[in-house]
Amino acid sequence: MTVVRPFHALRYDLKRVELSKVIVPPYDVVADDERSVFFERDPHNAIRFELTRDASEEAGTDYAHLSELLDEWRKAGVLIQDPGPGYYVMRQRFHTQDGKVLERVGFYAELGLAEYSEKQVMPHERTLAGPKADRLKLLQAAEANLSSVFLLYEDSEDVLGDILLSAFGSNGELLGSATDDGGVEYELARLTDSESLAAIESFLAQGSCVIADGHHRYETALEYRRLKRAEGESTSDEIPCDSTLAYFANAYAPGSLLLPIHRVVLNKAVPSTEEWEARLPGWTRSEITAEGDASEVAASAMDLLADHEGAAAFVADAGDGLLQLFVRSEPLGDSLLVRLVEEEVLNRVFGLSTDDIRGGEVHFPKSAQRAALDVRQGKGNVALYLNPLRPEDVFRVTREGEVMPQKSTFFYPKIPTGMVFRLHEVDD
User: Is there a domain that residue 342 lies in?
Assistant: First the structure.
């Protein structure tokens, strides 16, 4: 069961700041040269809770200033804490690459921590020691959750849909709106209706969740709890270190996009037709003329794959005016396409080992257009276009205790920092 609780959020007073100017993307997607943009945008931008102004300062900082900064902004009235607990419902509205308008409605809550072995919260990727050490310093200094873990839950019947939307009506309180640099529009509301709170808690308790983004933050929270317990803190579930801040979204909602991450082979030679066919027995190959610029070629490749959703299929593009569609005769079944491509294409066709792939011999563009451009601009030799994973793929693999191959999927839209924060001490 997943343990969720309403909480007393610390948040910006929108009479004092403009929300669009203080939210910031997740720390791990802010490029080093973008940091100054957010620091300069507003003196209260939430990047100050996540990153140093200069990336070179990061290794040496202990984030000791964060506690003082939180106190300063609270005393100044820039940050306020709600008097009673609630779930904080966030609606995101955005345009897809093909121009469709989609909407996702999810909510922020206090998440009871559980070890992965308990199968309540499940990871889909491995973590690195460096980022976890950095996030632990931040958490210890702030004694607050200043950004959230992003979790997906299964609700194929959309049981919670209307309950969450009610936060924008009579059951809740509209708090504010914002638009980010990517054009994603946000609305934030506070849900306090007791029946709604109980229904959400009950529904989540029936199943497990998968971490979409925030593996390092979640594992840091677990380590922080271990350290607090070793210091003699109570093991009661009521103390702050036993929980963290999380954002929950329905994996099956139309606005919860699991986008494909494509592959670009950088240095290996382009296989000949004979080499492709010899190294991929059991796969059918067909050629299609690739006309137009990179955008048009990318669209053509994804159109080809659309007819093979759920199958073992990929499109190869060497920038030579042809697209090659490969479809395996054997059904994909419970196999993951990204794992199959790594084993049968990157390993067997191109001779790349797992270490080669991790070492940088393959790039992982998050858009088909970027992959097509890389090949045409000489930044790679062959692009491999893939279909997206399905939500059931992610949940099946994680339930089996496995993690997915590197760069398997890209969850969109991301969850910004700055909507709500969670203190480890609640005002009386």
Answer: yes
